[in-house]
Design a protein that fits this description.
391 residues; eight-stranded antiparallel beta sheet; 4% helix; Immunoglobulin-like; seven-stranded antiparallel beta sheet; disordered N terminus; Jelly Rolls; binds calcium ion; mainly beta
Length: 391
């Protein structure tokens, strides 16, 4: 619980004319979720206390979406990040209330304005799965016009367009919720094997979305690894899609570098790494140092450089069951960064020299240099899900 919940509950109890709506899935099957959306409204405004109960398996982060029928406009929220585009609303957990076990509930609140009828929202869905249609409101009793006491200091108020992919991805982070200098919440900073002078910090000077990104100041040398990492538990480690925006400063060098690593539990916990070599993007498998593409001139020519001084959209698909890997840069598939199961000289022949069925369990973004190459990078709008997210 948090320090605002008590005050808000007291506010609801004190206010006259509350309306409660219970939303639940069909009775025939266990509902994926249920939503209790309790409104306290006056002539032009309202607050809503929203409690969502997760009926499915445990999740480490949650996104609740719904649609308004009228002209309701959310103006602030607490205990969730709430965004609105037209009549569609998306509420996401904050760093401290993302974990939701099966059968568990979480509550958040919002305040908004409306005119006409403040109809009950519809199309509630938790992490993309419908909670079912709402039941009719039990009561709707507008009160005399008063302005309720606004809950003190909302933890987060966010408006504007959400990053692409946030509606469907299990993980989607634009870092706008970060309040400190070191990334927190689902993110941890560090490198398991060797840390040095590389740094990771929330940055307010450069951002792809909003006003925040994460800046990685990567230094040369193996023992200056610097990463921002998060678990992929609950995402579907055997077949996943990732997307992030990256902006860097120094062109990919001749030497081997990595800007992304994922622990592969099906490969003795060794990393599956994305980065560069010979001035072009490449994947590298830590366990046997295989590269994709092969580092022959013909192989490297099938990959592409990573532009400096501008944001690039990096997308990947890791399909463990099929043993396949695909990569897109700014929405275009990179032919040299594809493992398609059929050994192709200069591309995935070396990669497919042994059986490979990855199961990755974390995502780390940062910098790892095996020669002496340094770079400064920014990351923003990071998303991971089970379907392609897009840029
Ligand atoms: Ca951002």
């Amino acid at each position: 619980m948090n320090r605002f919940a008590g005050a808000f509950a007291a506010l609801c109890l004190a206010a006259a004319g509350t309306a409660a709506v219970l939303v639940a899935g069909p009775a025939a099957a266990a509902p994926a979720c249920s939503v209790d959306y309790r409104v306290n409204q006056w002539q032009t405004g309202y607050t809503a206390d929203v409690t969502v109960t997760n009926g499915a398996s445990a999740v480490s982060s949650w996104t609740l979406t719904w649609n308004y029928a009228g002209n309701q406009s959310v103006t602030s929220a607490w205990n969730a990040t709430v965004r609105q585009t037209g009549t569609a609303v998306t509420a996401q957990n904050l760093s401290y209330n993302g974990a939701l076990p099966a059968g568990g509930s979480v509550s958040f609140g919002l305040q908004g304005t409306y005119s006409g009828t403040n109809a009950t929202p519809t199309d509630f869905a938790l992490n993309g799965v419908s909670c079912g249609d709402p039941a009719p409101p039990t009561t709707t009793t507008p009160t005399t016009p008063t302005t309720p006491t606004t809950p003190t200091t909302p933890t987060t108020t966010t408006s504007g367009p959400q990053p692409a992919g946030c509606s469907s991805a299990a993980i989607c982070d634009d870092f706008e919720q970060q309040t400190g200098s070191t990334p927190g919440g689902r993110w941890t900073v560090g490198a398991a094997n060797c840390t040095g002078t590389g740094t990771v910090a929330v940055d307010t000077a450069v951002a792809h979305s909003g006003s925040r990104s994460v800046k990685v100041t990567g230094q040369g040398g193996y023992c200056n690894h610097a990463f921002l990492g998060t678990s992929l538990t609950g995402v579907g480690s055997n077949h996943l899609f990732g997307r992030f925006w990256v902006r860097h400063t120094t062109a990919l060098p001749t030497g081997h570098v990595a800007f992304m690593a994922m622990r592969d539990t099906a490969d003795n916990g060794r990393d599956l790494r994305a980065g560069g070599q010979n001035r072009a993007l490449q994947w590298n498998r830590e366990s046997d140092d295989a590269t994709l593409p092969a580092q022959s001139p013909a192989g490297v020519a099938q990959s592409v450089p990573l532009a400096t001084g501008t944001w690039s959209c990096f997308e990947f698909e890791v399909d463990g069951a099929a043993g396949r890997l695909r990569t897109w840069l700014n929405s275009a598939e990179v032919p040299g960064l594809v493992v398609d199961g059929v050994p192709t000289p200069d591309i995935d022949q070396q990669w497919l020299a042994r059986a490979w069925h990855p199961a990755v369990t974390d995502l780390r973004l940062g910098w790892e240099s095996y020669a002496g190459d340094a770079d400064t990078l920014w990351y923003d709008d990071v998303a991971v899900g089970t379907a392609r997210i897009g840029c």
